[in-house]
Amino acid sequence: xxxxxxxxxxxxxxxxxxxxxxxxxxxxxxxxxxxxxxxxxxxxxxxxxxxxxxxxxxxxxxxxxxxxxxxxxxxxxxxxxxxxxxxxxxxxxxxxxxxxxxxxxxxxxxxxxxxxxxxxxxxxxxxxxxxxxxxxxxxxxxxxxxxxxxxxxxxxxxxxxxxxxxxxxxxxxxxxxxxxxxxxxxxxxxxxxxxxxxxxxxxxxxxxxxxxxxxxxxxxxxxxxxxxxxxxxxxxxxxxxxxxxxxxxxxxxxxxxxxxxxxxxxxxxxxxxxxxxxxxxxxxxxxxxxxxxxxxxxxxxxxxxxxxxxxxxxxxxxxxxxxxxxxxxxxxxxxxxxxxxxxxxxxxxxxxxxxxxxxxxxxxxx
Length: 366
Prior knowledge:
By secondary structure, the chain is α/β, with parallel strands linked by helices. The protein has two domains: about 1-175 and about 310-365, Medium-chain alcohol dehydrogenases, catalytic domain (Quinone Oxidoreductase, Chain A, domain 1), CATH 3.90.180; about 175-305, 3-Layer(aba) Sandwich (Rossmann fold), CATH 3.40.50.720. About 20% of the residues lie in helices and about 30% in strands. Strands 4, 5, 6, 9, 10, 17 and 18 form a seven-stranded mixed sheet that branches.
């Protein structure tokens, strides 16, 4: 098959092939099997057979158009681990048979200051998301990892450490880098006291990574039932955030707080835990603004910041770090046919701590 596009340079014709996928045609429709078009590899492209794809809360938000701007049909999935099927003539980093991964981006402008600094996630023109972004090759939208294969420029394909469990590696491509990037940016390491707020898909990775970086890790949770699990993950201490006496133990004591909570919560309670020049980075995405009291910041020269994923080089650095320290996500494996039920459980927080789809189940259905 072929896709024909008219551009400023003229008419472009690309060969394509039909691929099995799982997605939806509307915000209020269930995900089901459908077919999409993938380009055949160009000179710098890597074609990957998808073995596992993590399920991110962003998938659910996008599928249901809760962030608005979803283009249908929508095929989500940006935590992709697979094996290289074929490569373009000029590809030098990968060969057929290699393990490979794809995260939240498949391209960027590559020309702006941020791209040149290795901060493609902050591309001035906007990075090309793995799904629901304009596809500059086919002229449609990009389709994600709930599919049997994907074609990506080698510059946005990552190497997978061979010692890691492949299925449990998939969530590192979003949850892993989303927590690694701020921990690295704010110099978390030996001698630092670090708070992790919330033990979910993001928070549990934050605990593992901060501990491996050498920090003293304190977990803050609203549920006493998570105390044991937090310690299993590596926490040095666990605090019930609803208990003022427990919270007061760390008032003004922490160098850094990673806030992974997406629900409404009192951000000032956590800012008060920071010492002078301490920083709180928000990686959760609450639906409504969080009121910040001026005197939660001013007296201690505290900083309130945000962070999102990482650039390609930093994502590779994170994968290599996880390979060195044998860090993967805690997962529950599902078949693609279970995805609609998994979304409902995700809404209830009923997963420890990430769903991962065994994409072989898509082939069995096809």
